[in-house]
Automatic annotation (TrEMBL):
Gene3D superfamilies associated with the record: 2-enoyl-CoA Hydratase, Chain A, domain 1 (3.90.226.10)
Any one Gene Ontology BP term: L-valine catabolic process
Known EC number: 3.1.2.4
Record keywords, A-Z: Hydrolase, Isomerase
The protein's name in its UniProt record: 3-hydroxyisobutyryl-CoA hydrolase
Boundaries of every Enoyl-CoA hydratase/isomerase domain copy: 1-233
Gene Ontology cellular component list: cytosol
Reaction catalyzed: 3-hydroxy-2-methylpropanoyl-CoA + H2O = 3-hydroxy-2-methylpropanoate + CoA + H(+)
Molecular function via GO: 3-hydroxyisobutyryl-CoA hydrolase activity; isomerase activity
Length: 247
């Protein structure tokens, strides 16, 4: 999802599933996710970061994480129409008219929204003071009669407790940062994740050995030391920030 947010025109389809599931491998929602998760309505950004729950095309459009919706069958036709445009005159107007017309044809295929209709429940659950309380609240969803919420609770429960702390802190900080400052912060976080054991263990369990049983160094969210969390935001180089020239 992070790379998509940097695109000039973000397109989704009926089968699109977008997520930031880094909690499953002991990393954190990166590639600028601190920026856009912190700016979603209510507690939805925190919820998506903590659970790694996927959003569909309607969610992406409604939350401002995608610009256009097309049907799966429209790709080849759209490419042909793009080739017919006069790219020398009024390019933006022509392109917008084309994309608007194509989206109108596909709108009946747009799936139902998943998360905005559940925002009230999510906001209430995450109206808590710290990551441990947020974890307990979401973990309790595993027995919920709403399958989407139950799945989100299960995803969190299988995730990395340290990552929950990082998600909480990165979103808290990002609300007051520029986009350039967010990337600078995430640069530090990425380097520090490589220096701590959770990320390598998550990669081992999910991607290499694929036993899906990571042995987290801190398996209890309440036992993650505050100093360890803070250490992920500290620079590990001398002199100027490598991304100091970002504006």
């Amino acid at each position: 999802m992070g790379l998509l947010q940097g695109a000039g025109i973000r397109i989704v389809t009926p089968s699109s599933r977008l997520a930031m599931p880094e909690i499953s491998i002991g990393l954190y929602p990166d590639v600028g996710a601190s920026w856009f998760l912190a700016r979603l309505p209510g507690k939805l950004g925190l919820f998506l970061g903590l659970t790694g729950a996927p959003i569909n095309a309607r969610d992406a459009i409604d939350l401002g994480l995608a610009d256009r919706f097309f049907g799966e069958h429209q790709q080849e036709g759209l490419i042909e129409e793009l080739l017919q445009l006069n790219w020398q005159e009024q390019t933006d107007l022509q392109l917008n008219s084309l994309l608007k017309a194509e989206q109108h044809r596909a709108y009946a295929e747009l799936p139902e929204a998943q998360w905005l209709p559940r925002r009230q429940v999510i906001d209430a659950l995450l109206d808590v003071a710290d990551p441990a309380a947020a974890w307990r609240a979401l973990e309790g969803l595993r027995q919920h009669n709403d399958p989407l919420l139950a799945d989100a609770g299960q995803r969190l429960q299988e995730g990395c407790p340290l990552t929950a702390h990082l998600v909480w802190e990165q979103i808290r900080r990002a609300r007051h940062l520029s986009l350039a400052q967010v990337f600078q912060m995430e640069y530090s976080m990425s380097l520090n994740c490589c220096r701590h054991p959770e990320f390598s263990e998550g990669v081992r369990a999910r991607l290499l050995d694929k036993d899906n049983h990571p042995r987290w160094h801190w398996p209890d969210v309440a036992q993650v030391p505050a100093a360890v969390v803070e250490a992920h935001f500290v620079k590990v180089w001398e002199g100027r920030h490598p991304l100091a020239d970002l504006t």
